[in-house]
Every structure is written in C-alpha cells, then in structure tokens.
Amino acid sequence: MSNTPPNPSMTATDLAEILFSSGLQASDSPTPEQVRTAVDALSRTCGGDPSACAARVAQEAGDHPDTFAVRMRWALDTVHDAYGDLTTAA
User: Fold this and answer.
1) Whole-prediction pTM value?
2) Three-class SS string for the chain?
3) Over the stretch 47-59, which tens digit does the pLDDT of each residue have?
C-alpha cells in the first residue's frame, strides 16, 4: 500500500480527522500501514467526503472535551508518520 491519501486533495487535517474517527488508539501503537488501512477504509465509509468524518470529530469533541486535544494531536502526528509531508489545513 502506498503512502498516497485516499483522495489526493485531502490535507493532513482531513486525514487526521478520519483517523480520529477510527477505532485505532494511541495505545495500539499502530504501524503506518495500519493507519493507512484504517484511513482508507473509513474514507470509503464516509463516501470519500472528509466533512462526514469531521461531523464525527465534532461530536466526539463535544462529548469528551478533556481528551479531544490529546487525541487530535496524536492523530495529526500519526498521519504525518504514515503519509509523510502533507499540507495541514489552517
């Protein structure tokens, strides 16, 4: 599997939101391959539309504001490890 995002227009932020919405946890210490597999699968579930996963992220942020920032930082760092140097949306 390549380190190309499921949709070439996706930013690191888009991919991190998808990863955030997945079942992977930091405690799992997922490999880059596992991260790309999870992101690809969930991206297909969301119909390739990052905004569908963004809604899940917003819900999770509201439900668990105390852990949101830590998980999102992990997701961003993990996406950069799995996909290399990608643009991060502002």
Assistant:
1) 0.81
2) CCCCCCCCCCCHHHHHHHHHHCCCCHHHCCCHHHHHHHHHHHHHHCCCCHHHHHHHHHHHHHHCHHHHHHHHHHHHHHHHHHHCCCCCCC
3) 767 677 778 788 8
